[in-house]
Amino acid sequence: MSEEATSLKLSFKLGEKLDFSLSDIEGKNISLSDYRGKVILAFFFTTWCPYCSAEAPYLEKEVWQKFKNKGVQVLAIDVLETKELVEKMRKKFNWTFPVLLDTDGRVTKKFAPEKEGLSPEVAIINSHFILDSELRLRYYEYLNMERFDARARATIKKLEELLAE
What we know:
alpha/beta, 7-stranded mixed sheet, 6 helices, 36% helix, globular
């Protein structure tokens, strides 16, 4: 969790067990609990977010491809966009992990920080949430492109730590 994140008003706590269900891009209902036993990296994105597009290839190649056989599940959660827009982004970046659609914004509202001047659907984009194998929230970080490399290393480090437990 970043220093900035500690000063935000949130509706959840580190260590809290989390679960929610959303439809994936094919229309199948997916729950976090479907992945109990794995370490989960869930990230929120939009197709119009330049930071999300910058991170998209990294998530596929450096996270999903390197950790999927080690007990990690990556889940992309699109914020309030159409299936057609999301499918274009998935194809563009060759994402092979599940892509979920938060079409009504209920999951977005649950996890977005309250930040003056930002709607939940803007405040949540390009955020990472890591849950352990028992679905307990162990790490989260909101958009911070000033430290993109450090953020990427911190995400990888947290995944490795949880896998080692």
